[in-house]
Structure formats: C-alpha cells, structure tokens
C-alpha cells in the first residue's frame, strides 16, 4: 500500500482518498506507529499529512529520521513537509508570515512532482511557520510570499515536500500533483478501483466469517444496502438482513425499503417493528447525545432479539449469530471521535452510540470509505440507481430532526412536512443536485401567526438543503425561490401546528448537516 501517516490532520483521510482516486491502494496509519512497523507493511510510498502542531513545540509529533533513508519514496504535505525539512537539517522559520487559504504560488522548476505545472499555481495553504532553507541535497521547486521554500525535492533519495494542501479541491492542480508523485515519481500502476475493493473485501469477509451466521442492520440507506450486498456476495445465504422500524422513519419508508431491497438483491429480510420500544425509551429526552446513545443501544437490543428468528429462518437451529454487519462509513467514525486525536462532534448511532456490552463482532466493510466510493461499489455490485443514489438519511431518523422531546404527534407533523419537501424537490428535478435535505421541527419554539383570521401559535419547520461531496464539509443549496415558495405554502397549509417555514443558510463548518 501507500501509507498516509496521520499527524492529526483534518485532511489525512482526504489524502488517502485522493491516492485511491489516482487508483492506488492506500491506508492511513497514526504517526505514533514505529517506523519499523510501517516498513513491515511493505509500503510503496509514504505520505506525511499535515497537522495542527508546530515542529518547535515540545512534544510535537515527529517521525524517526530513519524513515527518510529506508529507500521508500516520501511526500511530505504541510506539517509533514516541515517535519521532513526540519529532521533533515533545513531551516524552519517560526516567525514567518502565515498564509491561510488561496495563495498564489510561483513555480521555480516545473520538474518532478511539479512536472508539467504552469509557471504559477493557485494553492490552498494553512501554515504559520515556513521552511526558509531546504536541507542539503534538495532543490527548491516553488515559493510564495510567505514561504521561501513552498515545494522541494531530492529525486535521488525519492524525497518530496509541499507546503500547500494538494488534497483539497481548492488546490485545482492538487490531484495532478498527487498523481504525478504516485505514477511518475514512484512509478506505481493504476490498479485500485471498485472491483478491486470488492474482491479484497469478499476474500477477507469469507475468511473471517467461516460458516457462522451473520446479520446486517438494514436502514434503507445506501451504506447498509451496499454493505449487505457486499457481504452477501461473500457468504450468500449465511446472511440475514434485519430492518428495524423504530418509529422514526419517514413516510412510506418501511414499505419502500422492504420492497426495493428485496426485489433488487433477493437477500433474506426480517422486519422488526420496535417502535413502541424505541419511543418509550426516548420519552422525555431532548438532549441530542442522549437521544443518539439510546437509539444506538436500542438498535443493538433489537438485533439481539431478532437473533432467534434469524436462526430459524436460516434453518440453522443450534447455531448462533456471531457477526453484525454495519454500513459504517469513514465520516461516521471521524465525527464520533474515532480518528486518531479527532474530537467527538456527535455520536453516530452505529459508532459512538453502540452499547459497551456488544455481543456481536462487527463487520464494517465500508469503514474506511466515503459515500461516493460506496456508491461506485454499489453500482459495481449491480444495485439499482434507486438504492445507490438515494439521499443519505441518518440511522436515528426523524429522532434527531425534532429539536426537543420526541412524541408521536410531533413525529406525525414532521413526517408530513418531510414528505412534502421530498415530493416537491423531486418534482423540481433537484434530487441529484442536492446531497440531502433534512427537514427539522423546532418543537419547543413557538411563534405567532394568523391563519383563517385566527391567531395561531405554532412551531417552525426548518429546511436544510445541502450540497456536499462526502458530508465532511457542506454548503447550503441555492434552491430556486419558487420551489421554496411552493414548499412553504404546502407545509403551512397541510401540516397541523406549523405556521412558519425557515431556510437554514449555514455551511458545514461551522454548522453540521443535521441539527442534532
Ligand atoms: P452531520 O450532521 O454530522 O452529518 O454533518 C453528516 C452525515 O451523516 C448523517 N448522519 C448520520 N448517519 N447515523 C447515520 O447513519 C447517525 O447517527 C448520523 N448522524 C448524522 C447525516 O445525515 C449526514 O448525511
């Protein structure tokens, strides 16, 4: 593999993903992994990520200098580049002028990692210290106003570094740089793609599962459907899917999932109606993290309860279910604080919301992937577009879209509003332009309205349409005003107790996509 060494960057996984976009297999490893252990993975190249530290700070994460003479090509990015320069004897200036965001960069030599580059490039920077002088043996390839050495290389040792972030889309020629590094400088072949991921996962799953029984929690979303299809390809009939109706589903969802999924895959499916159980456990709870933890735990309890039926349907009395498949994606892991040193933003039900006494062993074949990669795999596995291109819907469902306590009445109101929004967005042909559009009920907020000559005191509905590539960052979607007008009129006319519709115009960050 190509190893991406994570120095605690927000973008480390993004680097791994850009490497895969160049059709080369990559893995993320923490910077704390000893160099010998990294080398034991027989890496074809190593990329050092950025990170929040400064090389001068006491305790700043470093890397053993032996890495640079191990004969493996290394590309340092931002902090990783500074570490390389510092460890090899270059000069790093702590008083440099910082550069944040879009930065014009002069290319002094369009060679090596910058082969074919124009004389100047727009790059995305985020640094407060700068490399002033490159170490012995390196040639300087680029500079900016604030970074005398913005890119450097020593082709004979296979060492390369850039101050900017080639992995973000805001560096237009960033992907070209990564691809040049991998294919031209290191000479790697393009041999990693959806078909390759499937083959690897199928092999790994077969080996792990043996002849045990496996269940998959199916939510109706893309992720769990693709995970199920992948595991089904590996172990066929040993897999049973369990669809849990937790009472927090959208209108028509249960029927649709059952029908579409079974029709498309032929996988055995058990539906559990656990709405009573979920809703009574959620009674009186309005704090988002508590909701999430309760929902996460209830899912598992429901799967445990479903076990006996799973075994019976599989005709395997006497055995037990050992594995649980989840469609966990990388963003779920990172935002639940699962990345190395990452903060807990919210506990996704299938990660941070899992109970401690989990009896199942987890199979999460998509855990290192992003949504668009998962969609490519789904299509490759033969799933239809209706499943692969469904907009994301969170496992905790409408439960995290009612700000305040969850009650059946409020769920009914929200369910109606949500159905109207989906219908109108589809009618306007906007489904593929929008990543997803959470509809949120602010149940504890009341405002005055006038309807039919009467005073009303009702709740607001929030529309949260967003565009995104992978849900890690998002922007609010510019929906045409007339579509918004139709939605607003319909919601206030058709949804009891709602007298106001508002539009959320915040990007992520600073907000998240869901309100809770
Ligand atoms: P946030 O709100 O964190 O959402 O910006 C990012 C993406 O994740 C979805 N989401 C979840 N999906 N279980 C899920 O399966 C969860 O607990 C959960 N929380 C958020 C959200 O809809 C968006 O697509």
UniProtKB/TrEMBL annotation:
SUPFAM superfamilies: Adenine nucleotide alpha hydrolases-like (SSF52402), Class I glutamine amidotransferase-like (SSF52317), GMP synthetase C-terminal dimerisation domain (SSF54810)
Pathway terms, separated by semicolons: Purine metabolism; GMP biosynthesis; GMP from XMP (L-Gln route): step 1/1
Binding site for ATP: 219-225
The entry's keywords: ATP-binding, Glutamine amidotransferase, GMP biosynthesis, Ligase, Nucleotide-binding, Purine biosynthesis
Source domain of life: Bacteria
NCBIfam families per UniProt: guaA_Cterm, guaA_Nterm, PRK00074.1
Subunit structure and binding partners: Homodimer.
Record-given protein name: GMP synthase [glutamine-hydrolyzing]
Native species: Bifidobacterium minimum
């Amino acid at each position: 593999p190509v190893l991406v060494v994570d120095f605690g960057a927000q973008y480390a996984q993004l680097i791994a993903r850009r490497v895969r976009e160049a059709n080369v297999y990559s893995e993320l490893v923490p910077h704390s992994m000893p160099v010998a252990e990294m080398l034991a993975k027989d890496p074809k190249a190593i990329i050092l990520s950025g990170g929040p530290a400064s090389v001068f700070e006491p305790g700043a994460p470093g890397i053993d200098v032996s890495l640079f003479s191990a004969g493996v090509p290394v590309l340092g990015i931002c902090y990783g580049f500074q570490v390389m320069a510092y460890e090899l004897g270059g000069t790093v200036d702590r008083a440099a002028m910082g550069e944040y965001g879009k930065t014009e960069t002069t290319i002094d030599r369009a060679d090596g990692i910058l082969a074919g580059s124009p004389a100047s490039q727009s790059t995305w920077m985020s640094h407060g210290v700068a490399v002033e002088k490159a170490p012995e043996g390196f040639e300087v390839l680029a500079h900016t106003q604030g970074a005398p050495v913005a890119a450097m290389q020593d082709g004979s040792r296979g060492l390369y570094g850039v101050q900017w972030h080639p992995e973000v889309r805001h560096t237009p020629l960033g992907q070209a740089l990564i691809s040049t590094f991998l294919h031209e400088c290191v000479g790697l072949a393009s041999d990693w793609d959806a078909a390759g991921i499937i083959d690897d996962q199928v092999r790994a799953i077969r080996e792990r599962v043996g002849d045990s029984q496996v269940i998959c929690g199916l939510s109706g979303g893309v992720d769990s459907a693709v995970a199920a299809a992948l595991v089904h390809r590996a172990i066929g009939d040993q897999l049973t899917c369990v669809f849990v109706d937790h009472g927090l589903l959208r209108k028509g969802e249960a029927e649709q999932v059952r029908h579409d999924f079974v029709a498309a895959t032929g996988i055995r499916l058990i539906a559990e109606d656990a709405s009573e159980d979920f809703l009574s456990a959620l009674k009186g709870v309005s704090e988002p993290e508590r909701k999430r933890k309760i929902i996460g735990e209830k899912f598992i309890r429901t799967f445990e309860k479903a076990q006996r039926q799973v075994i019976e349907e599989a005709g395997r009395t006497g055995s037990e279910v050992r594995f649980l498949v989840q469609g966990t994606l990388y963003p779920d892991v990172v935002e639940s604080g699962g990345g190395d040193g990452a903060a807990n933003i919210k506990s996704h039900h299938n990660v941070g919301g899992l109970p401690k006494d989990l009896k199942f062993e987890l199979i999460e074949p998509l855990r290192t992937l992003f949504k668009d990669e998962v969609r490519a795999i789904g299509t490759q596995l033969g799933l239809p577009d209706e499943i692969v291109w469904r907009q994301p819907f969170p496992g905790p469902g409408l439960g995290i879209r009612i700000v305040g306590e969850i009650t059946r009445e409020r769920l009914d109101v929200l369910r109606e509003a949500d159905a109207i929004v989906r219908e109108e967005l589809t009618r306007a042909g906007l489904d593929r332009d929008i990543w997803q559009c959470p509809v949120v009920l602010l149940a504890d907020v009341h405002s005055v309205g006038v309807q039919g000559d009467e005073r009303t005191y009702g709740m607001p509905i929030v529309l949260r349409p967003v565009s995104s590539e992978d849900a890690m960052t998002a922007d609010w979607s510019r929906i045409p005003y007339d579509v918004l007008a139709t939605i607003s009129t319909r919601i206030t006319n058709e949804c009891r107790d709602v007298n106001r519709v508002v539009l959320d115009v915040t990007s992520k960050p600073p907000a998240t996509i869901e309100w809770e």
